[in-house]
Write a structure and sequence with these properties.
Largest sheet: 2 strands, parallel
Shape: extended
Number of strands: 2
Helix content: 55-70%
């Protein structure tokens, strides 16, 4: 259970040691490279103990930067399919995450599109400042001064 233990591989004593090291370092920014959802749980659970102004959960970014994990080809990155590349590289690990999160996302998008399609048309906003009438009024004043 992620709420009870942020990471199955690390004991509470090891967590305490990491917290002590972070506090002693007096770091201004901490990048947390644990897996999902452990990094979010760990950061939330220990945010007060860390005494670090900025804590950023980065997940597997260190593995990518270190070259342990290959990124998707550029064309897949450009069209937003890097998630699919990750799925192809690690299907046993990623299938459940992508099935649940992507399905929920697609359902939310479909619901919003349906809502927009079935909603009555929106009336355009009226502004307090109407540029055309202001310009016409300015021109009338300018013409009246000349005559």
């Amino acid at each position: 259970d992620a709420e009870q233990s942020p990471s199955a591989e690390v004991s509470e004593a090891e967590h305490a040691g990491v917290l002590r090291q972070v506090r002693e370092s007096r770091a201004d920014v901490l990048f947390v490279g644990m897996g999902t959802p452990f990094k979010e749980v760990w950061c939330h659970r220990h945010r007060e103990e860390l005494a670090t102004p900025v804590v950023i959960p980065v997940g597997g970014s260190f593995d990518v930067l270190a070259g342990f994990v290959r990124r998707a080809p550029r064309w897949m990155q450009r069209v937003g399919l890097e998630w699919f590349w990750r799925f192809l590289m690690e299907p046993r690990r990623m299938w459940k995450r992508y099935l649940t999160t992507n399905t929920r996302f697609i359902a939310l998008v479909c619901r919003e599109l349906f809502r927009r399609h079935t909603a009555p048309p929106r009336q355009p906003r009226t502004t307090k400042f109407d540029c055309r009438s202001q310009c016409q009024q300015r021109d009338r004043v300018s013409l009246s001064r000349r005559t």
